[in-house]
Design a protein that fits this description.
Structural class: alpha+beta
Order of helices and strands: HEEEEEEEEEEE
Strand order of the largest sheet: 1-2-9-7
Strand content: 35-45%
Largest sheet: 4 strands, antiparallel
Helix content: 25-40%
Shape: rod-shaped
Radius of gyration: 31 Å
Number of strands: 11
Length: about 160
Amino acid sequence: MNRKGITPVIATSLLILITVSAVATAAVFFRGTTDDITGSVNDQLSEQQRIEGTSISVERGYNNSNGNISLKVRNTGRYVILIEENDQKYWSLFADGRPNSFSYASYSSSTSRVPLDTGEVITLQTDVDYPSSGSFTRLELQGRFEIESGIVCNGDGGSQNC
């Protein structure tokens, strides 16, 4: 009587090999999943920290030599703020709720980035006319990481400052 089959030693070896392979496959899968989750959580924490540590202040506005409003804006946060990169502005200017444009009166650089360091002040020249006597204009800057600041310019006929 010839019996064909596997010996118990070979069967046990195959079961151990299959078990080790299954555990290794599961470890690779779960490691990739936990790395993805960890990266996502870190990105959200980093974004929240940027929101909490980034702020600006429009310190003053004034009537410039073109009859438009210029703004002095200070970075009052803990991080460098990027205003523009590769001709894409990250800040938006609104005059009385309507979008408006601005240029940099006090910034000259040959690079494609316009950063504002902590504590640094930049002068923005707007296309908004300085208000005539008896009227006012509200200007508001908005940017990335939920930053915003504004000022009201009142054409009181006096000081030419907002």
